[in-house]
Amino acid sequence: MDRHEGAYAAEGGLGHTQQCVAEALRDCGLDVRDRDCELLARHLDLVINKNRTLNLTRIDSVEDGAYLHVADSLLLLGAVGAAPAGPMLDIGTGAGFPGIPLSIVAHRRGTLVDSVGKKVAAVEEFLHELGLDAYLEARHIRVEDLAREQRGRYAVVTARAVAQTNVLVEYAAPLLQGRGRLVVAKARPSEEELETADRAAVLCGLKRVSRETFELPGDRGHREVISYERVGKPSIRLPRATGMAKKKPLGMEA
Questions:
Q1: Domain regions of the chain by residue span
Q2: Which of 123, 197, 223, 251 ranks highest by number of CB atoms within 10 Å?
Q3: Residue 127 in contact with residue 138, Cβ under 8 Å?
Q4: Alpha-carbon dihedral of residues 59, 154, 188, 30, nearest 10 degrees?
Q5: ω before 174 within 30° of 0 (cis)?
Q6: Please, are residues 159 and 90 in contact by the beta-carbon 8 Å criterion?
Q7: Which SS3 state, helix, strand or coil, does residue 164 take?
Q8: Could you give the count of Cα atoms lying within 13 Å of 47 in the half-sphere of its Cβ?
Q9: What's the count of helices (H) and strands (E) in the chain, helices before strands?
Q10: Mean pLDDT, residues 101-130
Q11: How far apart are CA 230 and CA 83, in angstroms?
Q12: What is the distance between the terminal CA atoms of the chain, rounded to a whole angstrom?
């Protein structure tokens, strides 16, 4: 796929950033072609630089960002690849993770949403600098409002460290195509959280289909990637009123 031609032409490499990203990907067993690795490094470089003036992330070093942002985002690749062909939605994208790395490597078009306008403006800058603005759009919008506008549009919805899993299930359900997938990245979700999410999934027409576990190198943390597939229609009207998913979450035991 040649969509990145001219997006960030090689200029002698990105030096330290690119070396750190390449090392992190190798350590995590992720095989990424050189052109994509260069774009991943460029994105991280943009984030670290922007973070000096705008609080995008608590991770402020290239070394940590290579593992905890870039490689961590790409741990979702297998689950995203199991979704049908079609556009991707990244909920709570922050500085563009995991949406931008996943789009670069999995070659999916899509939408990156966040409730913080300054973060969305920064992500729009990143997309322009990376030459990805023809493939990805960043939007400052609530997920419930997006669902009213783009019902059933997405083949895969991703979310990384954004909200409780049952809330994400509710957010994703009206946005997903039939057999579309919600892919959630978590640190150490409790069994109670996942059981609650499974009950919410039944109400929303989804079903949990996979749970993968990973250990980031160098004791950088435990990760779990949980996937839900849209298998039917919800038994309740979705989306509910804005804010209800968090105020009165689904799947809670009486």
A1: 16-247
A2: 123
A3: yes
A4: -60
A5: no
A6: yes
A7: coil
A8: 32
A9: 11, 7
A10: 97
A11: 10
A12: 51
Q: Which is it for strands 154-160 and 176-186: parallel, antiparallel or unpaired? A: parallel
Classify burial at 73, counting beta carbons within 10 Å of its beta carbon; exposed 0-12, middle 13-18, buried 19 or more: buried
What is the reported pTM? Answer: 0.92
Walk across the sheet containing 176-186 and list its strands: 136-140, 110-114, 88-91, 154-160, 176-186, 221-230, 206-216
The model's pLDDT over 153-182, given as tens digits with 9 standing for 90+, comes to 999 999 998 999 999 999 999 999 999 999
Tokens of 229: 């597939």
Total number of residues shown for the chain: 254
Nearest Cα residue to 249 out of 181, 141, 165: 165
Token pair of 145, please?
């409002």
SS3 content of the chain, % helix, strand, coil (to 5): 40, 20, 40
